[in-house]
Specification:
It contains two helices and two strands, in the order H-E-H-E. By secondary structure, it is α+β, with helices and mostly antiparallel strands. It has one domain (10-68). The chain has a two-stranded parallel sheet. Helix 1 packs across helix 2 (45-58). It is globular.
């Protein structure tokens, strides 16, 4: 892990999503991304989503469905077609 706290920053995680999306050969690749294992002390789901969406928007990526896992509730089921 890259930070002094043992986790990727939200910006680095978003950059990884952008890189994976950009190197994919399939037109409809990487449709769903679940942000999970968020730091209990230094992060929260809303911030991770906001940061990731901002980075994706800056990179003109709008076809990824982002979800953040909550620490205390189940993540909703997603039907992938």
């Amino acid at each position: 892990m890259l930070s002094e706290f043992g986790h990727l920053s939200n910006e680095d995680a978003a950059a990884a999503i952008v890189k994976i999306k950009s190197i994919s050969k399939a037109k409809d690749s990487l449709k769903y991304v679940f942000l999970s294992h968020l730091s209990r002390h230094h992060n929260f789901a809303e911030l991770a989503l906001k940061t990731s969406k901002s980075v994706l928007k800056q990179c003109a990526i709008s076809d990824i469905n982002l979800f953040a896992a909550d620490r205390f509730t189940r993540t909703k089921a997603v039907k992938i077609l």
